[in-house]
Design goal:
Residues 686-749 form the PASTA domain. By secondary structure, the protein is α+β, with helices and mostly antiparallel strands. Among the domains are: 46-56 and 82-267, Penicillin binding protein transpeptidase fold, CATH 1.10.3810; 393-515, DD-peptidase/beta-lactamase superfamily (Beta-lactamase), CATH 3.40.710.10; 688-748, Trypsin Inhibitor V, Chain A. It has 30 helices and 27 strands. Strands 7, 8, 19, 20, 21 and 22 form a 6-stranded antiparallel sheet that branches. A hairpin with a 2-residue loop joins strand 4 and strand 5 (196-197). Helix 3 (87-97) crosses helix 10 (216-225) and helix 5 (132-145) crosses helix 7. The longest helix is centred in the N-terminal third of the chain and has 21 residues, at 4-24. It is elongated and about 160 Å long.
């Protein structure tokens, strides 16, 4: 009897047992009908994924012009079609891995039987018999399906059940796909070392060319590496890689793909790889100063349902809104005004494009370099797009002004400017010597005792705006700031981990809110400017122009609708009111120094003790809010020239923050050509104050009827004036003029009586002698009267 007969019987029994195990897969399933059904379902699912599924690829992040700035991947792979792969690679891989590939049906039964008998005799694994189909299956399960270490171990387990399952899938695969499709899929899938997966990535990594350009010896090297991509790395093991390449070349000659002479000629050539592998950076860390927007874009997409895991596998193209010219200008400006290596202080700046349908982020910059080297002043923290610093200071006065205009006040409304103001019910503390339960504020400089709202926006007296927030109400001001763009102020926990900033400020009724003492999101602050510039229309700040999948199809992103948050007339009035800041106000010095000749509205801001400062500026084409703050572990006053932490602060929003704005805007055509809206004349005196002008000159009854018809209560008092007696000289509101408020009519008593003429004094007459006049009798008078009658004929 042949020695192989008992072995054949043993092999048959082993295969039967293996089939049962392979079908069951898991001990708990056994070989029951349910277990077999589940196994069949799993295998069919694996086959479907193999046949129609996508393999992980590289996602590319670009700027608005399409220039790549970052790549995201778990496996660096570029899927290509069969026609984009050199035939030399196909020939080499078949020759060395499965020379019967075009003959078998997915499983080489002859080779499998030979290998199993040899392994049984040896008592271990001495020979393999995996076809390319089977290797395709194993690599797919290992590199694509397996997500845990246990699943990875199971994918390569040396067991007959796993092998039989692999064989079953390999045979099914051969029925579903053509040989070229299987070969193309295999070459797109397998690892080639140095973080490259698939033949296209391998060609780029080792030779700097595409897979279609690979020569015979290059193809032989890569085909040989499939056996052990790390062990046969031509950089770490050039001798081993050369021996393996030469083996492939000889196999190609053996199986008719080359002549022996051609193989020998190629064997004589060096490996010819690049001096070092052409690897691809992974993640936003490689994006340089674009890294801040890159990371924000990924966070934004995650919020829209496109997770980072999907992006690292999906092979997407993410086109951001970053404009390279604007980004370069912004980055240069903030790095010029605040040293990237400055201890504990940074400047950030976002540029947002106003618009009625979108709000694209054109730039997102920090004076800090984007990176992981903290000792070199680098950071990957989202500084430009998160709540940071001690606040934007007086920039917040625009929210109080907006609320006042919204309630009817005009830009020409006169406001009191006391040197000190003490308010009850608006919090406590503030200026020195403040009484209990009182909030006290003083102005930093000397001002005229009264000024218009427009002038107040330019000169920024603190006492005026504390009085104003007292009149319009803290809740109205806080709500206005949220509507215009500070949306994170409504997020729970932003104040103390539980309450939002908006909730706390309104509940405590803190008048200091108008002085901007709370951390601010610089991106949101820039968008406030864009909202005002867009006629009071808010849109979500947007870093994404579009996302396309590997097939070139655009991916839908759910975005919130834009909102008209305030009346366009109110927004336009606020913009016009803020424009004087650059001509007579706190931003005028920086505007002049930088030669600004365009139109813009602006507001400077600095917090108490100069711990942070900001400059918000905008027009129809450009909105930005440079912001300097303490970004280290300690908070300190900040000084200027150079910006630094110091004992006594002298940094103001009209200094480096404003400098950064103008230095950027001067290089951006949209900013230079931007315009401001015209002012609706109703907002000069105010939409409700106009009624006060209407009643001047009316009778008391007519004026009362007009005001009461408009919803106001009326008081009356008398005054001397230029109007005729009984007519309205002026109408004076008590506080803010709101419907239901009180207006006092001052009724004119007529002009003051003229004083009786007095005889001139000797001093007034001078020293000239008074002439002596003849005496006049009654007869003289009668004679003259008769002459007049005769002359007139009466």
């Amino acid at each position: 009897m042949s020695v192989w007969k008992p072995l054949a019987n043993l092999l048959s029994a082993t295969i039967i047992a293996g089939v049962a195990g392979a079908l069951a897969l898991a001990p708990v399933a056994g070989i029951s009908g349910v277990g077999i059904a589940r196994t069949n379902e799993t295998m069919q699912s694996n086959l479907s994924d193999l046949t129609y599924g996508d393999t992980p690829g590289v996602t590319t992040v670009t700027d608005a012009t399409g220039q790549p700035m970052a790549w995201l991947y778990d496996q660096r792979r570029y899927e290509v079609g069969g026609e984009q792969i050199s035939q030399h690679v196909k020939d080499a891989i078949v020759a060395i891995e499965d020379h019967r590939f075009y003959e078998h049906d997915g499983v080489d039964m002859q080779g499998t039987a030979r290998a199993m008998l040899t392994n049984l005799l040896a008592g271990g694994v001495e020979q393999g018999a995996s076809t390319l189909n089977q290797q395709y299956i194993k690599n797919y399960l290992l590199h694509i399906e397996a997500k845990t270490e246990e699943e990875q171990a199971a994918a390569v387990e040396q067991s007959i059940p796993r092998k039989l399952r692999e064989m079953r899938l390999a045979a099914d695969l051969d029925r579903d796909l053509s040989k070229d499709e299987i070969l193309t899929g295999y070459l797109n899938l397998v690892p080639f070392g140095n973080r490259s997966y698939g033949i296209e990535a391998a060609a780029r990594t080792y030779f700097g060319i595409s897979a279609a350009e690979l020569s015979v010896p290059q193809s032989a090297l890569l085909a040989g590496m499939v056996q052990s991509s790390e062990g046969l790395n031509p950089y770490s093991n050039p001798e081993g890689a050369t021996i393996r390449r030469d083996s492939v070349l000889r196999a190609m000659a053996t199986h008719g793909y080359l002549t022996a002479e051609e193989a020998d000629a190629y064997i004589a050539q060096p490996l010819g790889v690049l001096e070092s592998p052409a690897t691809l950076p992974n993640g936003c860390i490689a994006a340089g100063d674009r890294g801040f927007l890159c990371d924000y874009a990924l966070t934004y997409l995650d919020s829209k349902g496109l997770s980072r895991e999907q992006l690292h596998e999906g092979g997407y193209t993410i086109t951001t809104t970053l404009d390279p010219q604007t980004q370069d200008a912004a980055r240069a400006a903030v790095a010029r005004n605040v040293d990237p290596m400055a201890a504990g202080v940074a400047e950030v700046m976002n540029v947002v494009e106003p618009g009625s349908d979108s709000r694209d982020i054109l730039a997102m910059a920090s004076s800090r370099n984007y990176g992981l080297n903290l000792e070199n002043g680098e950071t990957i923290l989202p500084q430009p797009s998160s709540l940071v610093g001690n606040g934007a200071g007086s920039v917040f006065k625009i929210f109080t002004a907006a609320a006042a205009i919204d309630q009817g006040m005009g830009l020409e409304t006169e406001l009191a400017v006391p040197a000190r103001y003490e308010a009850r019910g608006l919090g406590t503390g503030g200026a020195e010597n403040c009484p209990p339960n009182t909030y006290c504020v003083e102005n930093a400089g000397a001002y005229q005792p009264r000024m218009t709202l427009r002038e107040a926006l330019a000169y920024s007296p603190n006492t005026t705006f504390i009085q104003l927030i007292e009149q319009v109400g803290v809740p109205a001001v806080v709500d206005m700031s949220v509507k215009l763009g500070l949306r994170s102020y409504e997020e729970a926990g932003t104040h103390d981990g539980e309450r939002s900033i908006a909730e706390y400020m309104k509940a405590a009724n803190l008048g200091s809110y108008t002085l901007g003492p709370t951390p601010v999101n610089p991106l949101e602050l820039s968008n406030v400017g864009a909202t005002i510039a867009s006629g009071g229309r808010w849109c979500e700040p947007n870093p994404i122009a579009k996302v396309t999948d590997r097939a070139g199809q655009e991916v839908f992103l759910e975005r919130p609708d834009c909102e008209d948050v305030i009346d366009q007339g109110v927004a336009n009035a606020l913009a016009v009111g803020m424009s004087d800041d650059l001509t007579i106000g706190t931003g005028s010095r920086a505007a002049n120094v930088n030669g600004w000749s365009g139109q813009a509205a602006a507001k400077t801001g600095t917090t108490e003790s100069n711990q942070s400062s900001a400059f918000l500026g905008f027009n129809s084409g450009f909105a930005a809010a440079p912001y300097i703050y303490n970004d280290g572990t300690t908070t300190s006053p900040l000084c200027t020239s150079p910006v630094r932490q110091c004992a006594g602060g002298d940094l103001f929003g009209g200094r480096e923050p404003a400098e950064s704005w103008f230095q950027t805007a001067n290089l951006v055509p949209a900013a230079l050509n931007g315009t401001l809206p015209s002012l609706d004349e109703r907002y000069e005196l105010g939409t409700t104050h106009a009624v006060l002008a209407e009643v001047v000159g009316l009778t008391e009854a007519d004026a009362r009827r007009t005001l009461e018809g408009a919803g106001y209560r009326v008081n009356v008092r008398s005054t001397e004036g230029t109007q005729p007696r009984g007519r309205v000289e002026r109408a004076v509101p008590e506080g803010m003029l709101r419907p239901g408020g009180t207006v006092t009519l001052e009724i004119s008593t007529g002009p003051p009586a003229r004083p009786a003429p007095t005889a001139p004094t000797p001093t007034e007459r001078g020293t000239r002698p008074t002439p002596t006049l003849p005496s006049l009798t009654q007869d003289d008078i009668n004679d003259v009267a008769d002459q007049i009658r005769d002359a007139l004929g009466i």
